[in-house]
Design brief:
By secondary structure, the protein is an alpha+beta fold. The protein contains 13 helices and 23 strands. Helix 1 packs parallel to helix 4, helix 4 packs antiparallel against helix 5 and helix 9 packs antiparallel against helix 10.
């Protein structure tokens, strides 16, 4: 093609291009954000006649593009941003095919997209949409030193490279989300522990500000209380303000963003404080602000405020996290402001609300439908927030992770420990470690994070759907019961390692069982076997075996329901502990 530029000599033949693609796939596959952006830049520039690389990534929650790399330079933070349809990258994000622009029309030019470079200095622009399973992930923007259109075979090769980048980008996003959840749950676990032992409110609020900063960055922050008598909003703990202007932070309820939130009980995110009439300028550098109410039951007792020197710094997910910390702060504040009897009642109500919300988030919405097996699980609450947990983790099309676990204790601490256990388990499972290695890593995290008298029992295994085998580790959990239809007998899935969180260097052994047609595997927590009747007699394992045997011909869901009904009848309808179980029946 006359006048067209071509790929470098090193990757011109089909064999050389294939070899280059294989190398690119291998090098990009497991890289995280910064390393992925740098390596993608080097590969895409090295594979063509382009000299400049930008990588715009789509935030699926806000549908806004932000750069990981802009004009060959890594970008920290999320600025600048492009809306869908805005600029070259914003338009390309909604497309599926590469697009080449010799020059840019005025309607295509957005100054921030090019780092401030004038439009007449931009030429030879190629956009490569990044998609995975039909969903947009972002856009690669390449530019040349001249407006000459590249050869079609060169564009096709760059598109193949962009497909490998899209796969790597999806992997990096999945890993980042898992690690973010893991970090957040660890911080909530740490906060729950500190709240349970701290008697100094001021010290506790300072610790809360420290923990919030680890997941939501701010340049100034404060936790404020409403004086019921004067209706003034006064600081309780503040950061980042000029010591000479601290009096400016004090405001009447209803005035300023903090006073507005304290009056209305509504949270607010302000992308640009200079455009909001409610803003009171207590700090000249502030450009954006986020404020959440502090609630004690239905009463607003104050506000939690974060400020940033950057415009548009906060997103809805940041507010969700701030609201969680705000609820924790409110519990601590009320402890010192209310009479001890009233405080204790409200604290228990708050624990129940938060604990149940946390517990609901990590229980599965539905049972999996897989060949060769009928699977059903359930958690029956006793009305007290416990640490029971069960889940299904889809590993591959033919392998399903199945876990049942129990945390010692009740309330928020138990729920938060279980949340940390779940987050770390899922994160390690996604790293494709052997089951015993997953438990070694999870155990180390719990040992470092929880109090000495806390622990987790769990049985986790991987179900080979076609091979009909369940490979598991039992960390001090109740013995799993495997009913054998052929012999009308039971095999047991006994403990293969210690309680999680009790020994730093604990090791675990893997075991494997085969689940044949008609066999029934039951995994459960001690709320079933330790349920008691009026005579204080335990329900026990033998009664559980009898129920399983009597309902062996039913579906997995029917067996689950019958176990619940039998335990309820035995205990007089009053559950002292949660009942959690999973039934796996071979078909």
């Amino acid at each position: 093609m006359s006048g067209e530029t071509t790929l470098p000599e090193g990757v011109r033949t089909e064999e050389e291009r294939l070899r280059f693609l294989v190398r690119a796939s291998r090098e990009l596959a497991l890289l995280k954000r910064d390393a992925l952006g740098r390596r993608a830049r080097d590969l895409l520039i090295g594979a063509g006649s382009f000299s400049e690389f930008s990588l715009w990534v789509l935030d699926p929650r806000t549908e806004v593009l932000f750069p990981w790399t802009l004009c060959n330079t890594p970008v920290m933070g999320r600025r600048p941003r492009l809306a869908i349809g805005q600029g070259v990258a914003g338009v390309a994000s909604a497309e599926e095919q590469p697009s080449f622009h010799p020059t840019l029309a005025e309607s295509q030019y957005v100054q921030e997209e090019w780092g401030g470079r004038p439009r007449n200095m931009i030429q030879g622009v190629l956009t490569l949409p990044l998609r995975r399973v039909g969903e947009p992930l972002g856009v690669v923007v390449l530019t040349k030193l001249d407006p000459t259109r590249p050869a079609e075979e060169d564009v096709s090769f760059l598109r193949e490279l962009s497909i490998q980048l899209a796969i790597a980008l999806g992997n990096a996003r999945t890993h980042a989300e898992a690690m973010r959840e893991k970090v957040q749950n660890q911080l909530l676990l740490e906060l729950g522990t500190k709240i349970s032992v701290s008697l100094d409110t001021n010290q506790l609020l300072e610790q809360i500000l420290d923990l919030v900063f680890q997941v939501v960055r701010y340049d100034a922050a404060g936790i404020y209380l409403v004086d019921r008598d004067t209706q003034w909003v006064n600081q309780q703990a503040i950061r980042g303000y000029d010591a000479n202007r601290e009096e400016a932070v004090r405001t009447k309820i209803g005035r300023g963003l903090i006073g507005w939130v304290a009056k209305t009980g509504r949270s607010v995110i302000v992308p640009d404080v200079l455009r909001d009439d409610r803003y009171v300028n207590a700090r000249p550098q502030t450009r954006s602000e986020m404020v959440a109410p502090l609630r004690a039951g239905t009463e607003v007792i104050g506000a939690f405020n974060l400020e940033s020197d950057e415009p548009d710094a906060y997103q809805p997910e940041d507010m969700e996290l701030l609201m969680t910390f705000a609820s924790q702060a409110a519990v601590a504040i009320e402890r010192t402001r209310l009479h001890s009897e009233v405080l204790e009642t409200r604290r228990l109500e708050e624990e129940l609300s938060i604990g149940q919300r946390i517990q609901r988030t990590f229980l599965p919405e539905r049972d999996p439908k897989v060949p060769n097996f009928d699977i059903a699980g359930a958690n029956y609450s006793s009305g007290i927030v416990g640490g029971d947990y069960y889940d299904y983790v889809r590993i591959t099309e033919g392998h399903l992770g199945i876990v049942v676990a129990d945390v010692s204790g009740k309330g928020i601490p138990a729920a938060l420990i279980m949340a940390a256990f779940r987050a770390s388990l899922i994160a390690e499972v996604r790293n494709n470690y052997a089951i015993r290695t997953v438990f070694v890593k999870v155990n180390k995290l719990l040992w470092e994070s929880i109090e000495i008298d806390r622990f987790v029992t769990a049985i986790y295994g991987v179900l080979d759907i076609q091979g009909r085998k369940y490979t598991y580790v039992n960390a001090g959990h109740n013995t799993g019961l495997l009913y054998r239809a052929a012999s009308d007998s039971f095999d047991t899935l006994d403990s293969t390692g210690p309680l999680l969180g009790t020994f730093e260097t604990a090791t675990f052994k893997e075991r494997q069982v085969e689940i044949r047609p008609g066999d029934v595997l039951t995994l459960y927590t001690d709320g079933i076997t330790e349920a008691m009747d009026a005579k204080q007699e335990l329900f026990g394992e033998e009664r559980l075996r009898d129920v399983i045997r009597s309902r062996k011909g039913g579906t997995a869901a029917e067996i689950v329901r019958k176990i619940r009904e039998t335990v309820g009848t035995f205990s007089g309808g009053q559950l002292e502990d949660d009942l959690t179980l999973i039934v796996i029946k071979g078909q």
